[in-house]
Amino acid sequence: MSHSSSRMLDRWMSAGMLAPALLLVGVLVLIPSVLAVVGSFYEFGITSQNWVFVGLGNYARAMADPIFWTALKNNIFLIIGSIITQVGLGTLFAALLDRGVRRGNTFYRTMIFMPVIISSIAVAFVWILIFDPNVGPLNAVIKGVGLTPPRLGWLGDPNISLYMLLVIAAWQNVGFQMVLVLAGLQAIPKELYEAAALDGAKGWRAFVHITLPGIRNVLMVGTLICIIGGLKVFDLVFVTTGGGPANATQVIGSYTYLQAFTLGNMGYADALSVILLVVALGFGWLQLTLSRRG
Q1: Spatial distance between the Cα atoms of 69 and 233, rounded to a whole number of angstroms
Q2: pLDDT greater than 60 at residue 1
Q3: Cβ–Cβ < 8 Å for 176, 113
Q4: What's the average model confidence in pLDDT over 241-265?
Q5: CA of 290: how far to CAs of 52, 121, 177, 203, 213, in Å?
Q6: Which is the CATH superfamily of the domain at 61-293?
Q7: 224, 83 in Cβ contact below 8 A?
Q8: How far apart (Å, rounded) are the C-alpha atoms in residues 95 and 182?
């Protein structure tokens, strides 16, 4: 077999192995995405065959919808809160396990990481029981120390319910951030710390001038993961609060589901999903720009 024939055969074999994956991406991602963009310019129900063209009407409706802005604000709140709690605590735990904890390191690492492997639905149900105002252990602990639990419940009070979702998300995902940062910390040559110690740079100075620059790319990845998670969050909200109380925990994902499958406004739901895609692309561009400048 000639060299050109061999190269042609390799190309066909590569295309054949890629074909199933490309087919799945096309069927499950590309086609639904195109249909959502097209559907966002129409008004129709979930079972309706009568599509009414409204142009940018659905997008104008979103701009005038106060619940949409509440949902978007909640998504941004969860993004910022997740970066602070998950990346921050993950970095702290990683630093402690890397240099501060000498005994039981594997045990602590396993216990902190364990919630990551639990599904979000299971995590949500566990925390619903913890927050339960009647049988939940959290209220028992609060009362045991002489304090008064929220009268409307931890998930029923619109003033604190979103913060409770942030606590649940942090509990589940801090372990992943910890492992991510820990891998970055262990990749930093120990000789850098030894050389810095000879120059008098120890503790906080070594952390600022050696550790942070050494794990900068890892922190960027962790931040991007939090941004993606904060934008696409749905299951946690859907199971715990359903977007309530009084839309206090509504996010774009749950609001899109409400409009599509409860109220039957498929065109408007498509517009909301397209807006979410644009917001996600905007955050991705911003994060990429900042990482390049850094």
Answers
A1: 16
A2: no
A3: yes
A4: 93
A5: 42, 34, 20, 28, 15
A6: MetI-like (1.10.3720.10)
A7: no
A8: 7
CA distance 106 to 88: 21
Q: Which amino acid is at 258?
A: L
- The full set of domain ranges for the chain reads 61-293
Q: What is the model's pLDDT at position 126?
A: 93
Rounded Cα distance between 106 and 125, Å, is: 28
Distance CA 12, CA 26 (A): 20
Residue 54 makes CB contacts below 8 A (sequence gap 6+) with: 41, 42, 43, 267
**Residue at 20: amino acid letter:** P
Distance CA 171, CA 115 (A): 7
Q: Read off the amino acid at residue 213.
A: P
Rounded to 5°, angle at Cα 280 from 216 and 94: 30
Written as six digits, the tokens of 84 are 């602070």
Total length of the chain = 294
Tokens for 24? 């799945």
In our burial notation (b when 16+ CB lie closer than 10 A, e otherwise), range 195-207 reads eeeeeebeeeebb
pTM: 0.87
Distance CA 100, CA 112 (A): 16
- For 162-180, letters b (16+ CB in 10 Å) and e give bebbbbbbbbbbbbbbbbb
> Which region among 18-22, 46-50, 188-192, 202-206 has the lowest average model confidence (pLDDT)?
202-206
d(CA 273, CA 132): 33
